[in-house]
Amino acid sequence: MISVQEAIQQIQQQTIQLPIIEVDLEDAIGYILQEEIRADRDFPPFNRVTMDGIAIKFSDFEKGVRTFAIQGIQLAGEPQKSLEGQQTCLEIMTGAVLSEGADTVIRYEDVTISEKEGQRFASISSENYSRGQNIHKRATDRKSEDLLVSPGIRISPAEVAVAASVGKKRLQVNALPKIAIISTGDELVEVDQIPLPHQIRKSNVYAVQAGLKEQFGIQARLYHLNDDKEVLHSRLQEILSAFDVLILSGGVSKGKADYVPEILDRLGVKKAFHRVKQRPGKPFWFGATPDQKVVFALPGNPVSTFLNAYKYVFPWISTALGQQASPQIFAQLAAEFTFKPSMTYFLQVQLKYNPQGILQAHPIEGKGSGDFANLLDCDAFVELPENQEHFRKGEVFSVIPYRFGFSSMR
Ligand SMILES: Nc1nc2c(c(=O)[nH]1)N[C@H]1C(S)=C(S)[C@@H](COP(=O)(O)OP(=O)(O)OC[C@H]3O[C@@H](n4cnc5c(N)ncnc54)[C@H](O)[C@@H]3O)O[C@H]1N2
Ligand code: MOO
Ligand SMILES: [Mg+2]
């Protein structure tokens, strides 16, 4: 039996070739960017007016001028105009290019407009102005050619906005792996069926499928196989040939119908390890074929499948997609906890910020790895190391969040 650390290492060593493809900007959300996005012009590309009002020369104001002859209007979307003469101004709008010769914008709220003999004038009311106010100066955010987004970043709405502004209609990203999620077990029935007293509806595989969709935008296919060696052999052979990654649930422990490891072996999937020193999820089996088909065979108990998906499968997919490693999240244990066996314990917790802004993990242990309803009361697992038995209140441990809001932190 290997440790959690060794299991992570062996999994992360497993590579897979995913081609780089181009996606339309409108479809790019959630993909991992595989090119640099650079500024094609300065940000902002011109001295951009930030308030509707009048553009003046500040030197006029310094000389005591308070009333300016209005020379015209500079709208957003019009080529730059020029402010001519002394004691003059242009009415100017948010988003317009600051007129040549002007250096300061005074908002309409501080201006009174009057008219005399066909000439319009703008008088300013307050004296609290400064040179350059209400102007977003060219190149103060980013400079032309600056690197804006590096490869390996997951594309969020912010990256989409920036890509659009630099004219990237299409983006290079990693193709998503083709993933099959396979439930095994004679006791399982479909979601839309009424189970007999000895049956249950399958739930694990839907959770894993939803996690893949939420985290990577991957739409995995679901399969179900009964506990029958020949069926498992022939169907898994077909599925292996059609997919890059297989995620199985169930059939990996010591039971009389736990055939999965044996069948995978017969199919030429080379075992990297079977069983990890952890609870839940100990009977986890992992391996790959010589042609890099990767197989995660997760223990069937629902919390085991769930934990193993978040702890091992999703981080591996993230690496396979070339995603930059996200920072580890830590939380303080909000109550003491004891776990004696010499294995890593993934404690279920509710995450809350205390009034000091510290993330705290409140243990809600549940009734073992079959108690998947307990996942509803929690947000995360806290990883308690194997070489420790007593975990004090206030000690800090790494957490594996699965709730929206925590899970999508980078
Ligand atoms: N003698 C031993 N027995 C068991 C051991 C052990 O070390 N020695 N390990 C236990 C642990 S830990 C786990 S976890 C389970 C793992 O079992 P399997 O991977 O073989 O899974 P199954 O036997 O097929 O099912 C276990 C349990 O989970 C339910 N299940 C399975 N698939 C689904 C699904 N898709 N949706 C919902 N629920 C599912 C299944 O009905 C069983 O109740 O083995 C222990 N036994
Ligand atoms: O993973 Mo098992 O379900 O540790 O209990
Ligand atoms: Mg079993």
Automatic annotation (TrEMBL):
Needed co-factor(s): Mg(2+)
Matching Pfam families: MoCF_biosynth, MoeA_C, MoeA_N
CDD domains, alphabetized: MoeA
Enzyme Commission number: 2.10.1.1
Key words of the record: Magnesium, Metal-binding, Molybdenum, Molybdenum cofactor biosynthesis, Transferase
GO cellular component, one term: cytosol
Any one of the GO BP annotations: Mo-molybdopterin cofactor biosynthetic process
InterPro entries on file: MoaB/Mog-like_dom_sf, MoaB/Mog_dom, MoCF_biosynth_CS, MoeA-like, MoeA_C_domain_IV, MoeA_C_domain_IV_sf, MoeA_linker/N, MoeA_linker/N_sf
Coiled-coil residue spans: none
Location of the MoaB/Mog domain: 180-319
UniProt keyword annotation of Magnesium present: yes
Annotated catalysed reactions: adenylyl-molybdopterin + molybdate = Mo-molybdopterin + AMP + H(+)
Single annotated GO MF: molybdopterin molybdotransferase activity
PROSITE patterns membership: MOCF_BIOSYNTHESIS_2
Domain of life: Bacteria
Pathway connected to this protein: Cofactor biosynthesis; molybdopterin biosynthesis
Physiological role: Catalyzes the insertion of molybdate into adenylated molybdopterin with the concomitant release of AMP.
Family, similarity comment: Belongs to the MoeA family.
Record protein name field: Molybdopterin molybdenumtransferase
